[in-house]
Design brief:
CATH architecture of the largest domain: 3-Layer(aba) Sandwich
CATH superfamily of the largest domain: Glycogen Phosphorylase B
Shape: globular
Number of helices: 16
Radius of gyration: 22 Å
Number of domains: 2
CATH topology of the largest domain: Rossmann fold
Strand content: 15-25%
Structural class: alpha/beta
Helix content: 25-40%
CATH class of the largest domain: Alpha Beta
Number of strands: 17
C-alpha cells in the first residue's frame, strides 16, 4: 500500500511538523505494516528524499507563489473580528491534475490530506481526487467555512460562532462579521464539491467532537488518533547538564513560555501571559519569588522589555530539535496558555522531556495534560487560576514526580509505532 501525504509545507508550522511526524512514523514501520509513505508538499524545507516539493506538473512555480496573493483578492470586502487564518482555496493549483495522473498508474494509492491553505489544493480539486482520501484535521477549516478556528470572545468568555453545526445561511451570519459572507460561500463550495465520503482523523477529543457535530462531516467515518512523537529525540536531558549547556543557574525556578509578542496569534493566549506572570507576585512565597526566572523561546529580545518583575532570558527562534529538547529539560515547567489548540505539539514535547505543563482546561490540550499527574489545568481563561496552577506545580512537582509521570505518559500515548498502527487500521478500514 502506498500513502501520499499532502501538506502545504513539510516543516513550516505546527501542522506541517505534525504531518511530517505522521509520515515518518509510517516510514519507520514500513516493513511491519507494509505501507510505503511519501510526502508531497508545495514548499519543501527539509532535505528528506521521501518528501517531494515544488510546483505541480502543469503549473509554474511563479503561479504557485502568486496563489496566496490571488486568494487574498477573493476575501476583498470581508470584515471580521475573528483573527484566525481564513482560506478560500479558490484556484486550482494543478496538484489535483497530478494526483489524477498518479491514479492512472496506480489505483491503490491513498491520498492523505493535512493542512492545505490557499496554495495546495482548491476546494474543487479535493472533490475531484479519484483516490480514496484520508484527512487528518489540524484545525477547523475542513468542516467550517473559510475560517480555520472559531471566534472566541474572551471578554464574555463565550464561543461566538457555531455555524458549522447547521450550515452557513444568510440568517445565521455572525454579528461580528460585515460585508461579503466568504465563510458561507466557501462552505457552500465544500458542500457542493465533496460528495464522496472522506475518512477523517482527529488528534484530540475536542476537535473529534466538533467534527462529529458538523453538518459536513457528521455522517463520515471519524477516527481519534493523537500525533506521534519521536521519544528518542524528545527525551529528558539531566536538568543539571541542560542548565549548564544553556548557562543557567542550578538554584532557580525556570518557567518556560513560547513567544510573548503582542502581534503573535491571539489564539495562543499571549495576551494572558503578562497578567499571569504579574499575578505570581501576590500569590507566591518570597522564597520562591527570589528564585523565579522566565525563559522565552520563539522570540528574540525585544527593543522594549515588558515589566513583569522577573529576570527574562530570550532564546529566539530555535529551529532544531536538540536545542528545544535541552531547553524543555532545563525548565521546571512550561506554560501553554492557548485559547484553542487542536493538539498542542509543544505541550507534548515538553512532557516527553520530563517537564510538566500548565495550561487552560479547554480544547485539545485537555488530552495532553493529565491534571495533577503530569501538570495542572486552570479555569479557562482566568489568569489568576493559571497563576495558581503555576504555583501548584512549583510546590508539588518534585514530591509528586510530575516530570517522571509526564515522560511515562508520553511513552504510553504518543509512541510512533503505536500511532502508525492506528493509521494502518484506518487505511485498511479496520475500526
Amino acid at each position: 500500500m502506498k500513502v501520499i501525504h499532502i501538506n502545504s509545507s513539510d516543516l513550516n508550522g505546527g501542522a506541517a511538523r505534525a504531518a511530517y511526524r505522521i509520515h515518518k512514523s509510517l516510514l519507520d514501520n514500513e516493513n511491519r505494516l507494509n505501507i510505503k509513505s511519501i510526502m508531497r508538499v508545495i514548499k519543501k524545507e527539509s532535505d528528506d528524499f521521501t518528501v517531494v516539493g515544488g510546483a505541480p506538473l502543469n503549473k509554474s512555480k511563479y503561479f504557485i507563489a502568486l496563489m496566496p496573493y490571488l486568494a487574498k483578492l477573493s476575501r476583498f470586502g470581508f470584515n471580521t473580528k475573528n483573527q484566525s487564518i481564513h482560506s478560500t482555496a479558490p484556484f486550482k493549483s494543478g496538484l489535483g491534475y497530478e494526483l489524477k495522473k498518479r491514479f492512472e498508474k496506480d489505483r491503490n494509492e491513498i491520498i492523505h490530506l493535512h493542512w492545505l491553505g490557499d496554495n495546495t489544493l482548491s476546494i474543487e480539486e479535493i472533490g475531484e481526487i479519484p483516490q480514496r482520501i484520508v484527512w487528518t484535521l489540524h484545525d477547523f477549516w475542513p468542516f467550517c467555512g473559510a475560517e480555520h478556528y472559531l471566534h472566541y470572545d474572551l471578554k464574555n468568555l463565550i464561543l461566538c460562532d457555531e455555524r458549522y453545526k447547521n450550515g452557513y445561511t444568510n440568517a445565521n451570519k455572525a454579528i461580528f462579521e460585515k460585508g461579503r459572507d466568504i465563510n458561507k460561500n466557501t462552505w457552500l463550495r465544500k458542500k457542493k464539491s465533496w460528495q464522496k465520503q472522506i475518512d477523517i482523523v482527529c488528534p484530540s477529543k475536542w476537535i473529534y467532537e466538533c467534527a462529529k457535530k458538523s453538518l459536513l462531516m457528521r455522517n463520515w467515518d471519524i477516527n481519534l488518533i493523537p500525533h506521534p512523537l519521536d521519544l528518542i529525540k524528545w527525551s529528558p536531558v539531566e536538568k543539571k547538564i541542560a542548565r549548564k549547556i544553556l548557562n543557567l543557574k542550578e538554584d532557580r525556578f525556570y518557567i518556560l513560555f513560547g513567544a510573548l509578542r503582542a502581534t503573535s496569534d491571539p489564539r495562543k493566549g499571549s495576551n494572558l501571559l503578562f497578567k499571569t506572570i504579574l499575578r505570581l507576585h501576590s500569590i507566591l512565597k518570597p522564597s520562591y519569588l527570589k528564585k523565579i526566572e522566565i525563559l522565552i523561546f520563539g522570540q528574540s529580545k525585544p527593543k522594549y522589555l515588558p515589566r513583569i518583575g522577573f529576570p527574562v532570558t530570550y532564546f529566539g527562534r530555535l529551529n532544531d530539535e536538540i536545542s528545544m529538547r535541552i531547553l524543555y529539560s532545563a525548565a521546571d515547567l512550561m506554560v501553554v496558555p492557548s485559547i484553542q489548540e487542536s493538539f498542542g505539539l509543544t505541550a507534548s514535547e515538553s512532557q516527553a522531556c520530563g517537564t510538566p505543563v500548565v495550561a487552560f482546561r479547554n480544547s485539545g490540550i485537555i488530552d495532553l495534560v493529565d491534571h495533577e499527574i503530569t501538570g495542572h489545568l486552570a479555569n479557562p481563561f482566568d489568569d489568576l487560576s493559571l497563576a495558581y496552577s503555576i504555583k501548584w506545580v512549583l510546590e508539588n512537582a518534585k514530591e509528586l514526580k510530575l516530570g517522571k509521570n509526564a515522560r511515562e505518559r508520553a511513552i504510553r500515548l504518543w509512541n510512533p509505532s503505536k500511532i502508525a498502527k492506528l493509521y494502518s487500521n484506518v487505511y485498511n478500514n479496520k475500526r
